[in-house]
Design brief:
279 residues; Elongation Factor Tu (Ef-tu), domain 3; 2 domains; seven-stranded mixed β-sheet; six-stranded antiparallel β-sheet; 8 helices; 15 strands; binds flavin-adenine dinucleotide; binds FE2/S2 (inorganic) cluster; flavoprotein; 2Fe-2S; 2 iron, 2 sulfur cluster binding
């Protein structure tokens, strides 16, 4: 039996500054062993524990898509011990990865329907994975209209800016960006994500919404989606509770009787409404 605590060896191929404030870096990792790569089958919304030898491990959403084989991508904000060690890590360094962990966005259910993705801050990582997955030429026809509303405090804080600019040129996705306050040269929208979601007013008919971002953004966006007619069963969130083992063994991440690491991190609003409000 495979030991779930044993990390797979991976090599840091690329470590680059993602945001203008230099607080978020994006890491591209490649598998050292081909058989590990074949075994690591994941879906958008899942996460992995990244182990920095001698420092510890931390959970991060997988930003790459299963349609982009051969690598895993993570975008990481520098906040403490593991994330600082990662930021300082030279390319070529070996590190470990445990995963894929948790459940994923219900893409089988969303198939044949429209999808609205609402994201803020660095929680955009697994949303990026979802968009890349749907836009892949093998998958695009399986899904209906795709609308993305992605907000950041200022233009320098968006992740994957070049890719967004490319996606905004496509006619099979409506990609709306918004910032909190007007700045010279900005051509996207200005306003907080909940307000912009209300202005864009995506149709809730035959449609799902995936919402990911800081708690305050989620708090004010959920009522807007409900007002637009999205039922709680078709509003999907991802939680980022503190975690340790990531596999339902240690009890660090519990909300009520659910392990966020194993039963989640993806939950519908209908599921969250049945849990104690401690998430
Ligand atoms: C499922 C999941 C997906 C995540 N995806 C990403 C991602 O894509 N990119 C990213 O940058 N981060 C992500 N995080 C958060 C990330 O795991 C933490 O920032 C990381 O564990 C901090 O490790 P550290 O050793 O650097 O910090 P520590 O030295 O352990 O702590 C530094 C500070 O960060 C706080 N902190 C630690 N963990 C969390 C947390 N989960 N939430 C809020 N505050 C925390 C601590 O209280 C402390 O104040 C995710 C978390 C989860 C559970
Ligand atoms: S992190 Fe250990 S049970 Fe969820």
């Amino acid at each position: 039996m495979n030991n779930p605590y044993l990390p797979l060896p991976m090599r840091l191929e690329k470590n680059f500054i993602e945001t203008e404030d230099k607080n978020i870096r994006t890491f591209t990792l490649t598998f050292v062993n081909k058989e590990d790569e074949e075994k690591f089958q994941y879906m958008p919304g899942q996460f992995a524990e990244v182990c920095v030898y001698g420092k510890g491990e931390a959970p991060f959403g997988i930003a790459s898509s299963p349609t982009e084989p051969g690598k895993l991508v993570f975008s990481v904000m520098k906040v403490g011990k593991v994330t600082t060690a990662l930021h300082d890590m030279p390319e070529g360094t070996l590190l470990g990865v445990r995963g894929p962990l948790g459940n994923y966005y219900p893409l089988e259910e969303i198939e044949g329907k429209d999808l609205v993705i609402v994201g803020g801050g660095f929680a955009y990582t697994t949303l990026r994975s979802t968009i890349a997955y749907i836009l892949n030429e093998k998958n695009r026809a399986r899904f209906g209209k795709l609308t993305v509303i992605y907000g950041a405090r200022n233009p320098g804080l968006f992740l994957y800016k070049d890719e967004i600019a490319e996606w905004q040129k496509r006619d099979d996705i409506e990609f709306i960006t918004t910032i909190d306050r007007e700045v010279p040269g900005w051509t996207g929208r200005v306003g907080f994500i909940p307000a912009v979601t209300e202005q864009v007013a995506p149709s809730s008919e035959n449609s799902y919404a995936i919402v990911c971002g800081p708690p305050v953004m989620i708090k004010f966006t959920l009522p807007v989606l409900e007002k637009l007619g999205f039922p709680p069963e078709r509003i999907v969130n991802s939680l980022e509770n503190r975690m340790k083992c990531g596999i339902g063994m240690c009890g660090r991440c519990n909300v009520g009787n659910k392990f966020v690491c194993k039963d989640g991190p993806v939950f519908t609003l209908a599921q969250l409404q049945k849990l104690p409000g401690e998430y």
